Structure formats: structure tokens, C-alpha cells
């Protein structure tokens, strides 16, 4: 039997319906801070993808070091950071740095990064095409949400298909920042869930990983993707987050390290169908990126 307990999706609904309550000392950060001394401790982690194989492998590795993972599944993104901020969780792992920065800036809370996990390249797909040849003049469907629209436009910038106006926000451009006369394609923002439909209708589309899987589109069919190692990619590094006072908690830091164990990495690759790119950056660098992004949001 695994040491971790996977909480059903109903738990997320229950939390949302009944309100959040603070963790008791048995599962709170005071107890978990002693994990480095060899005591068996429980760490409560919120996520939106608890069914993935990587969590099972990760839980088993943590158990070998006396750390029991209580993994709480959420059905949507917004409640996960709020649950952490209010003490219902010890850590969460579901978001990239930009999403966390937007949350902090809008909520006034101060969640921090404990460690990095992966980055997932964002790609351009065009049915029955294997290159950018012939794409000039096409309308490209892009996701219209705050977390992906700017990045999608930058995918087209990196592909040489879109030119931004002078003075545009290079980190998070909007359609209004596009110099249409100097660009080779135009963009049509749509709900992210509709990008696979645009692709299947024969239009070029930028589709993020979660919708690729649901639509049965192979990542290898991409005709272009952004560079995860570029400065433009830094906001999209996925992370473990904690409350500010817990970023040096030795148990949490150790868990962030364990995520990079080769067994977890192999499982992540299987879950992502080979698209995930491992990122190992010091926490101080990640929090510097977070701070810069928060300043941009204010």
C-alpha cells in the first residue's frame, strides 16, 4: 500500500462548499518542519492532476524518507492558491510562475516558490502540414486567457510570423500590440478549449498540452514551438509553491528535490507524452522571477 492518500475530486467540491479551515498542528507547517530530523510527517499538497502517474511515483519516494503525502485534488485552478494561503494546504504544484505572480498581485497574498518542476513548450499546429510553408495570410487561433494569450503571441513572434509594435509589452503582449501590417499572419483569440476545433477545421492553432491530450492530437504534429530555455520562457516554469514563511522548510525543500529523481522524471515524460522539459533552478532565482512578474502586474 502506498503511504500517500489520494483525495477524490469530491474533496475539492467540499472545500469550496464549506469554506476553508486552517490546518491543525498535526498537518501544519510547524510539525512538517521536523521532517528533516527523521520523523514521519505528513505534507498536504494541492494539485489539479493527482491522477497522473508521476504523483504515485513521487509519493512512494517520499514515503521512503518518512514523508507521507496527502494529495488533494482540485477540479479548477483558482481555489488551489487560496487554500494554500489560508493554511488548508502546505504546498501546491499546479501552476507556472506567471500564474502565481498574477494571483499574488490580485489577492495581496505572498506565496513563494520552493522549487521548480518542468516547463511545457507551447506549440503551433496546422492540420495536414509539417512546416510553416504556406502559412502567410492565415488566421491563427490562439487561447484568449491571461495565462496563455501573451505566450501564444510570442510563439508566433519567435516563428517570425508576427511583429510587435514599438513599445509593446514583450513579456505579455496582447493582440493590440501586434503590428498587423508587418506581420505574416493574423490572430483570432478564442477560448482555449476551442483551439483544437479550429485545428480540426483546418486552421492553424496554438494549443496547450492539456487540450492536446483531450483532443487526441499528438505533440509531434507541431509545426513550431517556443524555446523553453529562452528568457521569454521563464514565466512559464512550473513550480512548487508555499507560504512565504515556509520556503526554507527542510521537508518542503527536500520534496522539491525529490521531484527531480529519475523515476519521477520518467513518469512525467510518460504523462506528458514526451513534451515536458525538466527545469532545475535555485529557489532564489525563481523567486526573483516571481517578484519581477508581480511588479509588472501592479
From TrEMBL:
A Pfam family: Lipoprotein_9
Keyword Protein biosynthesis among UniProt keywords: no
Cellular localisation: Membrane
Chief localization: membrane
Protein name: D-methionine-binding lipoprotein MetQ
Organism per entry: Corynebacterium glaucum
Gene3D superfamilies assigned: Periplasmic binding protein-like II
Signal sequence coordinates: 1-22
UniProt key word Signal: yes
Protein family (similarity comment): Belongs to the NlpA lipoprotein family.
Membrane topology designation: Lipid-anchor
One Gene Ontology cellular component annotation held by this UniProt entry: membrane
Phylogenetic placement of the source organism: Bacteria, Bacillati, Actinomycetota, Actinomycetes, Mycobacteriales
Alphabetical keyword list: Lipoprotein, Membrane, Palmitate, Signal
Amino acid at each position: 500500500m502506498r503511504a500517500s492518500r489520494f483525495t477524490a475530486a469530491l474533496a475539492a467540491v467540499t472545500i469550496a462548499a464549506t469554506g476553508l479551515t486552517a490546518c491543525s498542528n498535526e498537518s501544519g507547517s510547524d510539525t512538517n518542519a521536523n521532517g528533516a530530523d527523521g520523523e514521519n510527517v505528513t505534507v498536504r499538497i494541492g494539485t489539479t492532476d493527482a491522477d497522473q502517474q508521476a504523483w504515485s511515483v513521487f509519493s512512494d519516494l517520499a514515503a521512503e524518507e518518512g514523508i507521507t503525502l496527502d494529495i488533494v485534488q482540485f477540479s479548477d485552478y483558482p481555489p488551489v492558491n487560496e487554500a494554500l494561503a489560508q493554511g488548508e494546504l502546505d504546498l501546491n504544484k499546479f501552476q507556472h510562475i506567471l500564474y502565481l505572480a498574477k494571483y499574488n498581485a490580485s489577492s495581496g497574498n505572498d506565496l513563494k516558490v520552493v522549487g521548480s518542476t518542468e516547463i511545457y513548450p507551447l506549440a503551433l499546429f496546422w492540420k495536414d502540414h509539417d512546416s510553416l510553408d504556406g502559412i502567410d495570410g492565415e488566421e491563427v487561433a490562439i487561447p484568449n486567457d491571461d495565462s496563455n494569450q501573451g505566450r501564444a503571441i510570442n510563439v508566433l513572434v519567435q516563428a517570425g510570423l508576427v511583429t510587435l509594435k514599438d513599445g509593446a509589452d514583450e513579456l505579455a503582449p496582447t493582440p493590440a500590440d501586434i503590428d498587423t501590417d508587418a506581420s505574416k499572419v493574423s490572430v483570432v483569440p478564442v477560448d482555449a478549449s476551442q483551439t483544437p476545433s479550429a485545428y480540426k477545421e483546418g486552421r492553424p492553432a496554438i494549443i496547450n498540452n492539456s487540450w492536446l491530450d483531450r483532443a487526441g492530437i499528438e505533440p509531434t504534429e507541431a509545426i513550431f514551438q517556443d524555446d523553453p530555455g529562452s528568457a521569454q520562457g521563464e514565466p512559464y516554469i512550473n513550480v512548487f509553491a508555499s507560504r512565504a514563511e515556509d520556503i526554507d522548510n527542510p521537508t518542503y525543500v527536500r520534496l522539491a528535490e525529490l521531484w527531480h529523481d529519475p523515476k519521477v522524471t520518467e513518469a512525467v515524460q510518460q504523462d506528458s507524452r514526451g513534451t515536458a522539459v525538466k527545469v532545475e533552478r535555485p529557489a532564489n532565482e525563481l523567486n526573483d522571477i516571481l517578484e519581477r512578474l508581480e511588479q509588472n502586474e501592479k
